Amino acid sequence: MNKKISKRRFKVALLMETSNAYSRGVIKGIYGYIMEHDQWDVYLGEYSRGEPNPDWLLSWDGDGIIARIENETIAELIKRCQLPTIDVSSANLIPGIPWVETDDRKIAQLAFEHLKDCGLKHFAFAGSQFNWSKWRADHFKEVLEGQGVRCDYYSLPMHLDYHVVDEQKKIESWLATLPKPIGIFAAYDQLGRLIIDCSQKMGFMVPEEIAVIGVDNDPLICELCSPPLTSVIPDTFKTGYLAAELLAALMQGKTEVNITNLMAPIGVKKRRSTDSLAIEDPHISKALHYIYENASIGSFSINDILAIVPMTRRVFEKRFLEMVGHTPYKEAQRIRVARIQELLTESDLGLLEIAEKMGFEHVSYMSFLFKRETGISPIAYRHKMRKEFG
Q: Pick from 157, 230, 142: which is nearest to 189 by CA?
């Protein structure tokens, strides 16, 4: 009688912080690989960026490591372990070992194209001293130079324990010097949020005067911004999946694997921080801002706008049509439909609750408007989106 030979379970250490959405997404990708292929015994500590290094590795009887190697101390520790290792950090402190990282050229290209599609002609970059931020800055500038456009730049200090209040004041001073309207590419979401806060403190309208796009699409950061932050979506799941795939190959004795592996982003999640056309006329920009702030609850009229814009109705409507491409009423309808789409996709609210939230007296009229503008009923749209994106 043949005995079934059990498959060996590899012991793998994940040296990654769990305090941000990017790393958690990578960990999900690793888990996805494990579920589809080998069953590993995984050791995952609770880390945040810059925390003390896991000295237990030196006495650990393991088979492989996936780590964000972001300082020389942990790099030396991993070298001493002499275990198959995959690096998922941009620091690349151990040349020669396989590493998986975001494709920052494609991220910068996506950010530029999105801001350009908003009609913007002035651009700036805000970042930090990490490699991935520097690469995003370099590629963003490269794209702009190819278009004959200048790029303003702001960089946070090298150290992570900078004084936030002092830094906010410096960012505010920088924002005051920039031409308006302008699109700012922030190297990561938290910095994008900080720029939005500073812009509003300075009295600049977001996005009509300062449009902001970040990177990582961290829902907690992006959705809790006011206004919500547009963000480039990195393919963190595929990053983690590939890292696990490469480590499995090394642990199985294979020696020829790709050293540099750059993962293209999925796309851009557009939110309010870039949801406006760049308009040079300050009065039309102010009107657009007012329409957005009030359209979702359906509680304004042209006369309300004229109370804040020094124009006659005829002149205002003519200029608005010339610059925006449609009427103020049509813009309000566009905003309302976009908001309904968000609620159908990202909440479990029923149609009656959505109609009440959006200021419609009757569900039937909301459904009529939605289908007229999108070609599909609200219920069919919700089913379609959930089928496509889960």
A: 230
